[in-house]
Amino acid sequence: MNRWYRQSLPGRAGAYLLLTIVLLTDVFAVISWFTWGHGLEASDQYLCWLPFVGFNVGLCVIAGMIVAGYRLQGFPDRTASTSFHSWLAATPWQPSSRTPFGPWHPVWLDVVPFSILGVVAATQAAVLCPSLVAARDQAMAWSDALIVTVVPAALAPAVVFLFTWTICAYGILCSRWNWSIFLPALWMGILIHVGKLTSAEIAFSTLGVSLVGLMVVSWRRMQLELTKVPEFHTALSDVAPKPRRTSTTYAALSPAPQNPQFAAGLHGLRPKAFAAGLLLFVWVALLPWGSGSVNYLTVALALFILAVFRMAAYGEILTSHLGLVARWSTRQFIVPSYDRVWIPSVVMIVAGLATYGLVPLGVLPPTLGGALSIAVPVVIGLAMGPDYTTWSLTAPCRYSKRQQQQ
Fold this sequence. Notes:
two-stranded antiparallel sheet; 2 strands; 406 residues; transmembrane; mainly alpha
């Protein structure tokens, strides 16, 4: 192994510590065997070795996880130091070249350390084979016992390393990729549906293929991020400076809206309304739905809560210039330019109840009707206008008393 690759591995002290703990555990296992293990029945002798074997195999697996963490430290992302990025920008290094402080992704040289860990784990697991053969009254051949114990133990460190690296690499991308949370959540819900409709074996096989696909996607996205590394701290910012407020009068007369937190969140989800509805549909469909009156009341309560939440998000700061008493006195019960913001909430309740009302009629099955009755109103609430900025600047409204006090 060359020096460039060794930078992505823990130090020699970690390897010596792992070897020392494994040897000490084997010594305690031998002492336990001579103390009480040899007196057990042949079919029960695995009880003497199992805790020590499991501990040593677990150490090898943890070592694979630690190597995955060390490996990602060589990726110069946005969280790295400014001096490191400045140094990269000042050197002839190019994003297409290998990173200077070791690899940040799995490489072929990983075969060497994980072969060693696999041999150590397989040697520990091989101790259980005689007990497994005897426990089945010779029904399990030695080859089958080796496949059940040695092969999984030998592959466990490498598999856990790839799994840990994939999850951690994808976690690095979560802060800068808009679809990083949506895609795994949607796919996980689909996998649960596949497991319920087919079998657990097919679901786990699909999960394994999905993890491989996730590793490839993370790898490619991180390579794309790597092309932007030299410009993270050296390029000039394109964001215009914020204007300084010279007085409270300027702040009051400024047309810049002060969007509340919930309204800003809903506005940010507006372009992803259909994606959010699809994700909600997949997960809500996992609930046990029926066609009774209790389920109808549950849907009505959920729709009412969603509608009130949307109304509160918009009316948190701004209220109508005419209160209830003023509207009664002036006989102006509806202010169209202000009250139009409540139309999506009303449409949410009506659409949800109408959709679930098709279940008792036999038009939709309970699961499909229940999921649609929640997902469709959410899409309506996110996509239907007006947006907060347009409404706050065009409607006759005023700040609430709590906002004025602040």
